[in-house]
Design a protein that fits this description.
Structural class of chain B: alpha+beta
Number of strands of chain A: 0
Strand order of the largest sheet of chain B: 10-9-11
Oligomer: heterodimer
CATH architecture of chain A: Orthogonal Bundle
Shape of chain B: globular
CATH class of chain A: Mainly Alpha
Strand content of chain B: 5-15%
Strand content of chain A: under 5%
Pfam families (chain B): SoxA-TsdA_cyt-c
Organism (chain B): Aliiroseovarius zhejiangensis
Subcellular location (chain B): Periplasm
Distance between the termini of chain A: 53 Å
Number of helices of chain A: 5
EC number (chain B): 2.8.5.2
Number of helices of chain B: 10
Largest sheet of chain A: none
Radius of gyration of chain A: 16 Å
Helix content of chain B: 25-40%
Family (chain B): Belongs to the SoxA family.
Amino acid sequence: MKRTTITLFALLAGLGMANAETVAPADVTYEDGAIAQSLTGVAGNPTEGAKVISTKSLGNCVACHEITDLADVPFHGEVGPLLDGAGDRWSEAELRGIVANAKMMFEGSMMPSFYKTDGFIRLGNAYTGKAHEGEVEPLLTAQQIEDVVAYLMTLQ
Amino acid sequence: MKKFHGIAALVAASFTGAAIATADENAELVINGDIEIVTKTAAPAHLSDALDEVMSGWRFRSDQTQSMQMDDFDNPGMLGAENGAEIWATADGTEGKSCADCHGAPEEMAGVKAVYPKWNEEAGEVRTLQMQVNDCRENRMGAEPWGYDKSDAIDVEALLASVSRGMPVNVAIDGPAQEAWEKGKEIYYTRFGQLELSCANCHEDNYGNMIRADHLSQGQINGFPTYRLKNTKLNGAHSRFKGCIRDTRAETFSPGSPEFVALELYVASRGNGLSVEGPSVRN
């Protein structure tokens, strides 16, 4: 019994890492707000990216942004700019930087930092209102960031 | 304006709950065809750097939600105020006294809600209305204090708001209250939680914009307690603050905490000049 738990845990931990090339949030290098290198070395999947963007418990990007391509997802917000044509306006590296930590590109931006794990004030345990304990997970995983960027690149 | 009964309005509201209902931002609020409510006015001087005008949350709600507040028979929050009136007149505690024994009819308290939170010289602290009511309960009635934002406390607050409706919010921010006001202001502009959002990000920079299915208001508290169609009860301002901070993925503060008392004073002061309109109706 005990042994299975340990094996399972090791397996899950391994999956969480995605692969050896994953860049941890603290190790990301930004250049003028952009991140040149893939966070995982695995190409992003735009279909998964669209799901992350429109799902409330994931990126929930549509809370603030309208995207015509995702018009069948209800309730797009208007806090941030329309994302149509984002893949035209920005390079892949710039989009990776914006999604990972928009404050590097837009100083003081209201947009949350999706790949950041420190510097928070009164960090909570998700939406419980209670204090966070233990290791901090970024809002999105490295691969989810790559998937979102891949989707944004399709918005030409 | 055609009137309909509160229950009918509630049912209708829940059917349209899924659609984004846009408000008529130019509508004016007159309650019972009699009490004129200022829902939009020039920002108080201390806010003039940030806003030109301050607006009640009423302006941002759908026509249907707005109309529920126009007649006390349609306003489910008035049931709480009615219960508050009963509590007001009922003796409690070791002294065998009711609120009415010292204060007379609730109408005698007109104007009180408009100036709270307020500095209490004897206690040397800023007090919210609920804190003051609990002080009366403990020290004059010999009764147990009510839990913060709990139903009896909220119903009596709703009663006291209702008799001040139409009067301008006018909380003092200088003198001995200034320290708490500064603290509240700091909280208002702090970007809490993993989403790193401050009250100002949503309610100062983005009022009028949709955030997902919600039409952002200025987050004013002149309408508190508010009856929310979403949870079908009267809600206190501190409970609302708690929810908003929780939604930034932050460790929130508790209703009645010194942080929320300070924040209530600061947020109330942002609405100086708007009318007291609680108990109000919101979604």
